[in-house]
């Protein structure tokens, strides 16, 4: 970045330039909406996902991994769900030279993949609540303009899905989901948003009620950073998830699901950054301290580097993510570089 | 498992039964070769991947994330590579109702996705070595019988890819890869195998030389548990990865790649298990201690549970993964269950 771009005046240009210059993603990969995550950017996103996962572990939500591919007949089980997603599914249709027996969707979200298995796993009230989450990517063939981390076709995210014996337990679980999200977003990432209930026409396909966090971006637009859905018994009926209650009668479960994606990183970068670059919350920063050697005379170089190495190692041993800039740039250029990267 | 199966006499049946009974995977998901990873199993696999990642971090190999989808023209760049993989690629051909402009392969391995980007990232000798790894899944439309963790169509794995200025640096890097793998496999997972060079007809498509670890399974068959490939300059030429050397002349880089998959978990479970169930290395065990309350008289139940809770918490605070079996099974059934799960 030879001439910094004003974040306030030209937010969109600032954002796109910074994601490339800050080595978050590389958009030159030739599949639209699927950028490459560079080490610096992947560390930031993974760190946010780990913070979310830690909240779910504390809440007894277990980590699973479901297949990427969802058979077409699963997606069609819940009518409003397939309506919501059919226009944006990627379909895998061939294995080698041959057509597959059944077209497989790349998961646009995992409800139908998971809930058919839940119907096998839930037998009695003793199996409830069933609470799982996974960190993976979902795939949506967006036709609008793509934008890194915000609107892409490959979306790294974390999704949680739960089954409960009663409506009240499900609603209480959603309340706890917001406690977890707010802890990470407000206390660690340092931004917030408005928690809103979406109108019926804009709610998640297959849900009863969608609550979202809308974060206001520097350009004045809102970005949906969290989606949390009360599913009632719609999917439980569509996928036949039933339990035997204490009176030995079958009941459908009550469900919730919620997820967050790379938009958490997008909002973190957008809200805190300034014209000189990113400003990262220390909890997710790739490097919390960068040691920049300042060589006044060439003959001192070895002494200065040795001392810098020591400082870096002391910091690392104290549990701080520290690095030493060994490149042969001048200190000014190094400061500029690390200012930009946050 | 009401009647235990003899591991020695009927290894295949023992293995398949144990993976389901031990809640590693659930094969009832209706896509062949793509089982669901249950929390217990996913913890084991993820723990092994974390051990591998830790080795790569120590060796300065950086973690990236490349897109799942590889355009057909990338895969075709290296002739022997596409020959090796074309029969087993899954192809995504549609987005919504429309045909995609270019068919996209679900990565069968990531060489061509990565190496075209490497050609943009490598400019001068200062950019070398370039060493990256990623943890993801690869997809292969196996036509043979599938078998969980060993031969599947969705393969969770870790792959590393490196570029070097000289042939010697590349070979030295491969030597270090084996140091890392052996540390995890021999010192932590507690098994080993024969390190063999594959004959030309069986070598990785696009490589110069393939070294593998073949682990002998209890049934006497061998399982390839590690693959490490010296790529020479074949891909560097196919994907045009060049650097300016210190004399300002362009040179192609020398490359290596290597990977391990869920087969490490398969071998761990197969080698150590016995007729009563899994025997897990403590480093990857989901629970290192299970507290089983023994209630002699019903009225003592509360006191015993309270004491068990205390013991569990003390262990957890000491950094041990401990759990308390709160189910209403009898102690004998609990012992049987946890014996089986390792």
UniProtKB/TrEMBL annotation, chains A, B:
<keyword id="KW-0436">Ligase</keyword>
<keyword id="KW-0067">ATP-binding</keyword>
<dbReference type="InterPro" id="IPR045864">
    <property type="entry name" value="aa-tRNA-synth_II/BPL/LPL"/>
</dbReference>
<dbReference type="InterPro" id="IPR004154">
    <property type="entry name" value="Anticodon-bd"/>
</dbReference>
<protein>
    <recommendedName>
        <fullName>proline--tRNA ligase</fullName>
        <ecNumber>6.1.1.15</ecNumber>
    </recommendedName>
</protein>
<dbReference type="InterPro" id="IPR004499">
    <property type="entry name" value="Pro-tRNA-ligase_IIa_arc-type"/>
</dbReference>
<dbReference type="InterPro" id="IPR002314">
    <property type="entry name" value="aa-tRNA-synt_IIb"/>
</dbReference>
<dbReference type="Pfam" id="PF03129">
    <property type="entry name" value="HGTP_anticodon"/>
</dbReference>
<dbReference type="InterPro" id="IPR002316">
    <property type="entry name" value="Pro-tRNA-ligase_IIa"/>
</dbReference>
<keyword id="KW-0030">Aminoacyl-tRNA synthetase</keyword>
<keyword id="KW-0547">Nucleotide-binding</keyword>
<dbReference type="InterPro" id="IPR036621">
    <property type="entry name" value="Anticodon-bd_dom_sf"/>
</dbReference>
<feature type="domain" description="Aminoacyl-transfer RNA synthetases class-II family profile">
    <location>
        <begin position="37"/>
        <end position="281"/>
    </location>
</feature>
<dbReference type="InterPro" id="IPR006195">
    <property type="entry name" value="aa-tRNA-synth_II"/>
</dbReference>
<dbReference type="Pfam" id="PF00587">
    <property type="entry name" value="tRNA-synt_2b"/>
</dbReference>
């Amino acid at each position: 970045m030879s001439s910094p771009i004003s974040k306030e005046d030209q937010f969109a240009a600032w954002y796109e330039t910074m994601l490339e210059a800050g080595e978050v993603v590389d958009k030159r990969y030739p599949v639209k909406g699927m950028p490459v995550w560079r080490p610096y950017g992947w560390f930031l996103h993974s760190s946010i996902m780990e913070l979310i996962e830690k909240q779910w572990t504390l809440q007894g939500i277990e980590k699973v991994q479901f297949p990427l591919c969802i058979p077409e007949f699963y997606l069609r089980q819940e009518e409003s769900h397939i309506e919501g997603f059919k226009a944006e599914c990627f379909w895998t249709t061939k294995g080698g030279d041959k057509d597959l027996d059944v077209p497989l969707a790349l998961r646009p979200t995992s409800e139908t993949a998971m809930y058919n298995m839940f119907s096998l796993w839930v037998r009695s009230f003793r199996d409830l609540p069933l609470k799982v989450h996974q960190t993976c990517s979902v795939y949506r063939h967006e036709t609008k303009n793509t934008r890194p981390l915000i609107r892409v076709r490959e979306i790294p995210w974390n999704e949680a899905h739960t089954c409960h014996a009663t409506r009240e337990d499900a609603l209480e679980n959603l309340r706890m989901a917001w406690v977890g999200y707010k802890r990470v977003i407000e206390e660690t990432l340092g931004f917030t948003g408005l928690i809103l209930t979406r109108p019926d026409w804009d709610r998640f396909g297959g849900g009863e009620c969608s609550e979202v966090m809308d974060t206001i971006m520097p350009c004045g637009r809102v970005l949906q950073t969290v989606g949390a859905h009360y599913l009632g018994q719609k999917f439980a009926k569509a996928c036949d998830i039933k339990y035997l209650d204490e009176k030995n009668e079958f009941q459908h479960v009550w469900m919730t699901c919620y997820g967050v994606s790379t938009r958490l990183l997008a909002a973190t970068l957008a809200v805190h950054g300034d014209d000189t670059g990113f400003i990262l919350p220390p909890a997710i920063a790739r490097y919390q301290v960068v040691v920049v050697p300042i060589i006044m005379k060439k003959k001192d170089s070895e002494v200065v580097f040795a001392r810098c190495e020591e400082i870096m190692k002391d910091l690392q041993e104290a549990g701080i993510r520290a690095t030493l800039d060994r490149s042969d740039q001048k200190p000014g250029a190094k400061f500029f570089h690390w200012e930009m990267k946050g």
